[in-house]
Write a structure and sequence with these properties.
6 helices; three-stranded antiparallel β-sheet; Arc Repressor Mutant, subunit A
Length: 125
């Protein structure tokens, strides 16, 4: 696959992760945290997210799991606590993918159509 074109499945998964206002708010907070609990310069503790967003610990954990799986956030476990930070390289890649979609090329459209015709086993349907 051409490096200038986005991986459509990965991009769709990223959009799903961004499709919740709480997760977008989490990314905004991680970009410029104003934590006063147990956060450090290299990460934000989940308990800080609970207070800022007004969400329960299980809800924050669920949202963070999805953001980590999408590759937008990194999680570092330190003892009992997990500290989160943005993955700037992933956000840069997302920006490039969006730029590639802004000026769609025939090849990208053909790739999307091919992916839709291909079943889970890699065989054309």
């Amino acid at each position: 696959m051409d490096a200038a074109r986005p991986d459509t499945h990965r991009l769709a998964d990223t959009f799903k992760a961004l499709a919740d206002p709480a997760r977008v708010a989490i990314l905004a907070f991680l970009r410029a945290p104003q934590a006063d609990c147990c956060s450090r310069g290299d990460g934000v503790c989940a308990c800080d997210l609970e207070g800022v967003l007004g969400l329960s610990q299980p809800t924050v954990s669920h949202h963070m799991k999805l953001l980590v799986q999408a590759g937008l956030v990194r999680a570092d476990k330190r003892g009992r606590w997990v500290y989160y930070r943005l993955d700037h390289a992933a956000l840069d890649a997302l920006s490039r993918d969006l730029d590639a979609l802004h000026a769609p090329e025939l090849e990208l459209l053909q790739e999307i159509r091919h992916e839709r015709r291909t079943d889970m086993n890699g065989e054309l349907t």
